[in-house]
Amino acid sequence: MHRRRVVKAAQLAQTSVFGDSASSSESEDSPETKAAPPALEEPSLPPPPSQPSHAENASSTNLVVHNLSPHTTERHLTRAFSRFGSIVSVKIMWPRGGAVQGSTGNTAFVSFDERTQAEQAMRAMDGARVDNREVHVAWARTQPRHQAVAMPEDPQVRRLVHWTADHVLAHGAQFEHALIQRRASDGRFDFLTAWRSPEHAYYRWRLYSRANGDARGRWRTQPFRMYDDREAPLVRPPGVPQGSVRMRFGRRVDRAMRPATGRRAVASAMRFAVEHAADADVLVDEVCRALGRCSAGGRPLGALHVVSDVLHNSAVARVPGVWRLRAAVERRLDDLFAALKAAMGTDEYRGVLAVLAVWHVWMVFPEQRLVGLAQMFM
Length: 378
Fold this sequence. Notes:
378 residues; alpha+beta; Alpha-Beta Plaits; four-stranded antiparallel sheet; 13 helices; disordered N terminus; SWAP/Surp_sf; Surp; RNA binding
């Protein structure tokens, strides 16, 4: 089973060659990274589902306990539930590697010897506090061998889930707890506590995915187990929307080439490239395309600044696979500079030579290769 690595967000906060930080805010076409949640017209998420009926679980003695504190151990849980009868087993589903432990609360399964004991425990413990945290208890259902995660069709719901997941990862579990309390009457945030809803499953997967280094617009799609337990279901992530990486990066490069564009646009494009280094060839090809569609009066030198920042961060960023960016640029150097020359006037050649001089100091490419590129602009 593929074990995911946790990549700290700070690893993407590399310094831009042209002064901006790679951790600068996302551009306006990435609403999930804004500092405030998007305004929605109407609550669009379903209310939490009701408890399964007694008839559905007439013979079950197994309970599922949600929203456990990350500090709660199986010994603590046994002590809390043993007063209701003889316990057969207690199992906490610990997140793999602790990636999202404590963000939305851990889940545990408690099995009693008799049905009446389990009924009494569920009535008494549902809504009770364990380790200073309110827990929710229900009848446990048989876990499926595979659990498919579906992306919400409503883009507003999707944006809200993304915003919440990013802020929980940035500020910790206390942010989610405060959100649940303050938005208790707001149906838009029901996905935080509607344990069996598709939106909650998507939210939990999104937290795990982002905590383990997946990019906002691209993620690993191999099935995996979110918990360190062989009996845990295999989670199948949603598919990645086709073409989204190319289009989103292309918009950033286009903005970097607008007249009087600030360095923030360059840093935004560079950061996106670092986060999506797995698509290095697609990104470099999109720079060539962007230069080809650069309109009269545009600033094609901005695209070169994006490439330069990408090269710098591909050498210093501690992100898996970021080396692919430099290799992809080197393969397309001739195409890049041919498209650059075709898009700009002779009065801008000096800016190209200045960038090549910086590359010479960095020793990013062989000297003879850089000399050949410089001769195109002399």
